[in-house]
Amino acid sequence: MDFGIFTFGELTRGASGTSRSAAQRIDETIRLAKAADQAGLDIIGLGEHHRHDFAFSAPEIVLAAIARETERIRLTTAVTVLSTQDPARVFEQFATLDIISGGRAEIIAGRGVFPESFPLFGYDPANYDALFEDKFELLLQMREQADVTWPTPGSANGRQRGHHALQDAAIAPRPVQDRLPIWRGVGGTPSSFVRAGQAGVPLFLALLSGPQHFARHVELYRAAAAQAGHAASSLRVGTGSHLYVARTSQEARDTFYPHYAAYIEQNMPRPADGFPREQFDAWAGPGGGLLVGSPAQITERILATHEMLGTDRFMAQVGLGTLPFAETSASVELFATEVVPAVRKALGQ
């Protein structure tokens, strides 16, 4: 099992109505990645959004900056919004990142949560599903072939809604790694799990609710992969959760609540009275998807998810809301130095 952190670079407004600048958030993220690398975490991910309240519209550029400041940590997106990107450009960018980093690049490709990239890049949201499926298939083909013809001769996929036709198109440069790791980021739709299994690619799942809600979905993923003839050894399941760690559970909840409430109220529709503390405590309690507590509590929750879903990776979404950088750094340090070693010990790693 490997462990990491990811962030969307939120620019959540505080009580005064102001927020961090994109420049400040990007600088903090590079410093956080360097600290995570030194603390022994395995991976850092950056999410792609095209809104004024997020800092990363071009995460691969920030990842390239991180590559020059780190030595071993792997670099991924969380996620690349493939529906509104050109797969050739995505592959070329991450192949270049792989070269810059000495073979540490990965891609988590997904549909994305917010729709703003569709009008921005001239796509019809009505083609939401077909765009992603076509482009994901093409991205995988580009990983395997340096010269690509699309659609593949004889392929049932002749829709071309995701990409124009290609004939022996050069996809360059090629990455350092023999096969650039490409994960599929999924939400809660069972068909997405099935398609990931049919493609035989690793699966990354954001646990915004408890893992018990997704056990059947992960079973569908593995069953679809087996039916398609993919070896079980090629299948990996990663999960991500909102996380804040402090020395005690009470300290963690009291510190994190107002900052997390600001994030929820800005990004998710809430009642007029905002995001109440009792709702926060319920989400952070047993069966919830929010990981807020002491190192021992977080360790127990990660192990429970691993036992339920058979996970190979856990990534903590950090820096949420208006939480100051110092508190985010302290939380990541506790995660890296106390939670991760405890989980690894329990798993016999």
From TrEMBL:
Record-level GO cellular component terms: cytosol
Asked if Oxidoreductase is a keyword of the record, the answer is yes
Concerning InterPro entries, the annotation shows: Bact_Lucif_Oxidored, Luciferase-like_dom, Luciferase-like_sf
Q: Which PANTHER family match?
A: BLR5498 PROTEIN, LUCIFERASE-LIKE MONOOXYGENASE
Which keywords, in A-to-Z order, does the entry hold? Monooxygenase, Oxidoreductase
**What name is this protein filed under?**
LLM class flavin-dependent oxidoreductase
Name the species this protein comes from. Answer: Sinomonas puerhi
* Residue span, Luciferase-like domain: 1-310
| GO molecular function annotation | monooxygenase activity; oxidoreductase activity, acting on paired donors, with incorporation or reduction of molecular oxygen
Nucleotide-binding: is it a keyword of this entry? no
